[in-house]
Amino acid sequence: MPARFWIISFISPRGDAALTRRAIKHARLHAKVLQWSRTRKQYERQGILVESEALDKAEEECLADEEVRRRRREREAERRAELDAEYVQAFGEHTLRVFPRCPPETAKKIAEHACLKYSGRVGRSAAAKQFDDEAIVLAVQAHIRHQFTGYDELLSRGIERPQARAMVRGEVEQVLASWR
To answer: Given the DSSP bridges, would you call strands 42-51 and 8-11 parallel, antiparallel or unpaired?
Structure first.
C-alpha cells in the first residue's frame, strides 16, 4: 500500500461544512465513513477520511476566510428572519381574506402561532405556504378550539383528542360561521 494511505485524518459530519468541502477538494483520495443503524435500518454517515495534507490546507483556508463566512451567515440569518416575518404577515392577511369578520389582532395571533418555525404546525406546511384556504381554515379551527372552547380542559381530564375535538366541534363551527 502506498504511504499516503497511512496518513489520513477523520472529519466528523457535525463539524464545519466548509472544512469538509475543502478537505475533499484538496484530497487526492477521500472516503465516506458509514455505520449501519439498527433502529433506522440504513447506513448513516459518520464522517470522512482524507489525507492529512488536504485537511491542513482546508483548515488554513477556513481560518483565512472565517470572518467573511461568519458575516455572510449573519446576513443570511437576518434575511431569513425578514422573509419569515413577511410570510407570517401574509398568512395573517390571507386569514382575513378567508374570514373577513375575524378580528385583525386575532388573525395576527393565529398567523404567529401557526407559522412558528420548526413547530410542525399547519402554517409551516407546503399547502399553507401556498396560502391554501384549507390550511388557513385548519389553523383558524385550531386557534378557536384552544382559545374559545373547553378543549384544553377536556384534554387535561384525560379525554382522547378525537373525542375532545368532536365534543367542541359545534362551538368551533359557530365561531367559524360568525367570522365568515
So the answer is: antiparallel
CA distance 54 to 10: 11
Q: What confidence tens digit (pLDDT) does each residue in 152-163 have? A: 888 898 989 899
pLDDT per residue as tens digits for the range 24-72: 999 988 888 889 999 999 998 888 888 888 888 999 999 999 999 999 9
Cell numbers for 116, please give them.
412558528
Write down the domain spans for the chain. Answer: 6-64, 80-179
Secondary structure (3-state) at 137:
helix
User: CB-based contacts of 10: which residues, under 8 Å, 6+ apart?
Assistant: 33, 47, 48, 49
- The rounded distance, in Å, linking the Cα atoms of 67 and 11 is 22
DSSP structural state of residue 148: S
Secondary structure (H, E, C), 55-120 = HHHHHHHHHHCHHHHHHHHHHHHHHHHHHHHHHHHHHHHHHHHHCCCCCHHHHHHHHHHHCCCCCC
How many Cβ atoms from other residues are within 10 Å of residue 9's Cβ? 18
